[in-house]
């Protein structure tokens, strides 16, 4: 049985998406894939039980039937951290036992690391510790927005200590792929770090569904609740004159509008330009004309009690934590890895033929 631990230089680098994409590609090659995220930090309660959202989504995406509590044996709750800082925690045997259960009958185990490489040091369970415990190696995912990210990668290599423990790195969400290829890749490889791929920023993967937006904002969808799966890639704040706004709206696809419920002019402009969703702030409800037009065009409308600026801040957080949910995103992740990652070389490092 082969394995790889997928870690990252910082949180929200795309670790879960890479875990999912690699799993899907290897599964298509006829390999039996297992998955583990030892530490849960994205909580969701189901039937009174805490479940890690990332583990839950990956379990569904790659068709596993292992219990979620085995996939994520340790939840990083406030109580856990309190115990770690006061009495100390010894969880190595618990993680090892869960891993052994999950790996039975599998060809490859994909292990998702902590939020970043240093996470877990306080209780001796950083990604480096986990890799040694489970006798595996580390693939780093780096969210590469500029050349300064090279510092983070080199710092992680220094933390790892043993160069043989690091398989290499995937540069993800890259804003300037040519610059990364011309400057970062040769530099990193001169320092002994294999770069398996440069994945450019992809708007779809940064998108969130209308349903996710409504749930996160605590809003009811007034009309077209059947369009909860519609994806939103951008949002506009409707604080300008309607004709000016219309010119901006027409330049962008798959956008949502955030504006006050009393701005029917800009709401109509957004509907004309193909908005995917309208979010009305200040607990102000739209006119019957707006609701009728939105219903006819299949555009969900929701109302929130918070003011516009607060809603914008919340939307920025929601968009920044977009998850890989739905068939459309899953296909896109797989396409990006097929196109931009040397899966043959990565498979060779893992010990499987791709």
Task: Walk me through what this model shows.
This protein has 354 residues and is of the alpha/beta class. It folds into 2 domains: 2-202 and 323-350, P-loop containing nucleotide triphosphate hydrolases (Rossmann fold, 3-Layer(aba) Sandwich), CATH 3.40.50; 208-320, Udp-n-acetylmuramoylalanyl-d-glutamate--2,6- Diaminopimelate Ligase, Chain: A, domain 1. Helix content is 43%, strand content 21%. The protein has 15 helices and 17 strands. It has helices spanning 15-28, 53-61, 68-71, 78-86, 92-103, 127-133, 149-160, 177-190, 210-217, 242-249, 264-272, 288-297, 308-320, 327-340, 343-350, and strands spanning 2-8, 33-36, 39-40, 43-46, 49-52, 74-75, 108-112, 138-143, 166-174, 195-200, 208-209, 221-223, 231-232, 234-237, 255-260, 277-281, 301-303. The strands form 5 sheets. Strands 2-7-1-8-9-10 form a 6-stranded parallel beta sheet, sandwiched between helices. Strands 12-17-16-15-14 form a 5-stranded mixed beta sheet, sandwiched between helices. Helix 1 runs parallel beside helix 2 (53-61), helix 1 packs across helix 14 (327-340) and helix 9 (210-217) crosses helix 13. It is globular.
Characteristic key phrases:
single chain, 354 residues, alpha/beta, Rossmann fold, Udp-n-acetylmuramoylalanyl-d-glutamate--2,6- Diaminopimelate Ligase, Chain: A, domain 1, 2 domains, five-stranded mixed sheet, 17 strands, 43% helix, globular
């Amino acid at each position: 049985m082969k394995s790889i631990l997928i870690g990252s230089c910082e949180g929200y680098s795309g670790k879960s998406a890479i875990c999912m994409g690699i799993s899907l590609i290897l599964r298509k090659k006829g390999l039996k894939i297992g998955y583990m995220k030892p530490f849960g930090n994205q909580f969701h309660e189901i039937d009174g039980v805490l479940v890690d959202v990332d583990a839950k989504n990956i379990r569904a995406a790659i068709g596993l039937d292992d219990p979620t509590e085995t996939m994520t044996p340790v939840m990083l709750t406030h109580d856990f951290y309190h115990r770690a800082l006061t009495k100390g925690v010894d969880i190595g045997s618990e993680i090892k036992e869960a891993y052994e259960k999950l790996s039975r009958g599998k060809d490859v185990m994909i292990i998702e690391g902590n939020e970043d490489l240093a996470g877990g040091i306080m209780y001796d369970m950083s990604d480096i510790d986990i890799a040694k415990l489970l006798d595996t190696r580390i693939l780093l995912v780096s969210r590469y927005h500029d050349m300064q990210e090279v510092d983070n990668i080199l710092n992680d290599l220094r933390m790892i200590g043993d160069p043989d423990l690091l398989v290499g790195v995937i540069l993800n969400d890259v804003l300037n792929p040519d610059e990364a290829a011309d400057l970062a890749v040769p530099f990193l490889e001169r320092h002994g770090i294999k770069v398996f791929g440069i994945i450019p920023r992809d708007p779809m993967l940064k998108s969130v569904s209308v349903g996710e937006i409504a749930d996160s904002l605590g809003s009811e969808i007034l009309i077209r609740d059947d369009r909860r799966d519609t994806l939103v890639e951008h949002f506009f704040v409707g604080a300008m004159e309607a004709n000016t706004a219309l010119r901006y709206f027409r330049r962008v696809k798959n956008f949502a509008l955030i504006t006050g419920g009393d701005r029917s002019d800009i709401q109509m402009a957004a509907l004309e330009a193909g908005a995917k969703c309208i979010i009305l702030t200040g607990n102000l409800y739209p006119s019957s004309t707006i609701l009728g037009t939105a219903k006819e065009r299949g555009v969900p409308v929701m109302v929130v009690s918070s003011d516009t600026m607060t809603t914008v801040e919340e939307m920025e957080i929601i968009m920044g934590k977009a998850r890989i949910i739905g068939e459309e995103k899953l296909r896109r992740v797989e396409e990006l890895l097929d196109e931009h990652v040397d899966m043959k070389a990565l498979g060779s490092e893992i010990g499987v033929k791709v």
